[in-house]
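Q: Entry one of two.
A:
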Amino acid sequence: MDIQKTMQDIGTRAKAASAELAFASGAAKADALQKAADAVWARRSEIIDANARDMEYGRDKGLSDAMMDRLMLDEDRISGIVQALRAVADQDDPVGAVLDEWDRPSGLHIKRVRTPLGVIGVIYESRPNVTADAGALCLKAGNAVILRGGSESFHSSQVIHSCLCDGLRAAGLPVDAVQLVPTRDRAAVGEMLTMVGIIDVIVPRGGKGLVGRVQAEARVPVFAHLEGICHIYVDKAADVEKTRKVILNAKTRRTGICGSAECLLIDRAFFATHGAPFIQDLLAAGVEVRGDTDLQSIAGVVPAKADDFGKEFLDMIIAAKLVDGIGDAIDHLREFSSQHTDCIMTEDDATAAEFFAKVDSAIVMHNASTQFADGGEFGMGGEIGIATGKLHARGPVGAAQLTSFKYLVSGDGTVRS
């Protein structure tokens, strides 16, 4: 395969499709997504068979249990894909929405309205459901999308992509609106990163190596999604039982997702009064707890190394340390947080408000599991990723975040003096 020629062809077709999608009706886009959901469910056996090939590839490649979990599809997870497609379909069409409008003394009437970005490139690893999520959200926002899935999910993504194309055909929309790069060759990624004039923004979704490469090599804008080094700070006023429930869920529900908790910060005053029963819960669940000197007094806790703080484990491992109150916790976050999702457990509203004000992460939580760091759980239907940068989009990137805006200015023969 001539990678450069293939990617140029994909890009040219995506650009043409984006021009048509920019004025497609909300009803047509919703219909395409509903038909795609129908196709995914009707073809679920085909998807599961394709996924079995991917799982075999992953085992041969030596993927961790957490990464294999990210890769695996069964009927329940396919049902989740279907529900996510329908949820995006049912959302209001963001394109054309009036964000603001006003009149000027000059006689001009000005409106700021949402418009599609154009062509979006999505580069992702392992999780085949991203094929559906990214395709759906880009389509909803009137964008064409070029999907480059991980080599591990190659076969699953092909069938899911085919279902999206089924939906586009049924709705009379251009099939080139959602394209999947047809090769595992990493050279295709390099081509995408330099397709200036074709791709308007790149969204990387994966590990530090992938995101680092994209940020270093991209010549088109990037929605940054760095590591999910999620912290939970246990304040002295935390409720013990709430905290035990939240921490166990935040770490163990799914360890391989970016919303999994990776570090516990425990107020020394809380520890002196209550100990750390949630650490025993984690140990009993099979989590390796790497603690500082103080926490090593708990049977089963192993010594933490310096680089365990600020590390995304994506596994049944968590770092833990004692801190001297909220100020010390915030200082730790400023040094080690990836600004993805950080949580405070406390019954003191003033302390929670201070944490909300001073922690500069894309998502800041109070008394809730970090596993809720997900566009679907935010009511967005799905997400294309969690942006940790500060320009254009931040936090879960849903359909609305995949738009720009333009100004519509109306006059009546109005001239400037």
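Q: Entry two of two.
A:
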Amino acid sequence: MNEIIAIICEYNPFHNGHKHQIDKIKEKFPNSTIIAIMSGNVVQRGEFSMLDKYTRAKVAVINGVNAVFELPYPFSSSNAEIFALAGAAIADKLGATHLCFGSESDNLEYLYDIANTIDSQAFEDKMQALIRDKRISYISAKEQALKKLGKQLPTNPNDMLAVEYLRAIRRLNSKMLPISIKREGAQYNSVEECEIMSATAIRKAFYERKELLSMPENAIEILKEELSNGRYLNKQELDQFLFRYALIANPELYEGVFDAPWESGYFIFKIAKKASSASEFFDNLCSKTYTHARLRRTLMYLVTGVIGVSTDNIFTSLLASDDIGRDFIKKIRKGLKIVILTKQADAKKLSSDELQMLKYSQIADELFMSFLKTPISADNAYKRSPVII
């Protein structure tokens, strides 16, 4: 059987760095099927994606991915550990033979060493002591615990996520083999403009100057159409909404929200009260203990009513595919260990817990539609079909 290579991604938006990864996979595995497990309309930084999930999936397929499946909300907006575990679980259940990821170090031996250390009892003991004795962030505690064990926490985001992918493969007892491809171009979150820019810099150029940079030409053409029709996130309006919601939300409500840091509701409320604008609110939404992304995710969870999350209740949706992808799906349908949604009626195949997870995802999709530059009725969230190339 040919290799089934899975990529866990956001493609927010799809850019030259993503194309480089796909081209490298095709060089190494010319007869492989490439599947992407892609975030839906909410991404890991706790905000909506720039473009809707079907458009992003279409661009990916045009550029070499054979089938794009959804990593549904709230998994798509969770911390690195849950994000990686949920994505790897979907890939594994779809029959992927390999899991491919980009990394700055491109050193699997080093990444495995860190993953093994984090999963050790010695590390857990030191983490618990640090968290108990000091009021520090989780990431700072992790860094200090590793140092006490003579290890260095990766400083680059893709290396850190790669460690979580390796841990996820082991936790799932999966036979997937990891493939590391060295990240090229600008660093994650860099605003440098070059041939391979970060997604952060690309979004910045788009929102500030309506420039479309560092993307394949076919992606630029699709984005131009979305731009002309107003089918992209009105980020300013979303931020205004979240700021005002934070102003009126009862701080105690946060305590029941999934992955909400201790007393985060009071902290978010205090920052909102002090701010005179949405930009000031989000500029100050961080602390020594909690990162901006975690607090923003917490606010988004409150808005969408996310209470409990378990990767045991995993399902996916087909967003786009080409002929190779369609053949792949036909071959795996028999004995499949995961529900693939392609239409509303498929929801009847879900368990009650999975239906609750679907509800969270649907609420997020409906809200996303209302925050497009040219808003679309929430009903449209249920009228879309997979894009077939």
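A: Comment on entry two: The domain at 4-105+160-233+311-388 is CATH 3.40.50.620 (Rossmann fold). Residues 343 and 383 are 8 Å apart (CA to CA).
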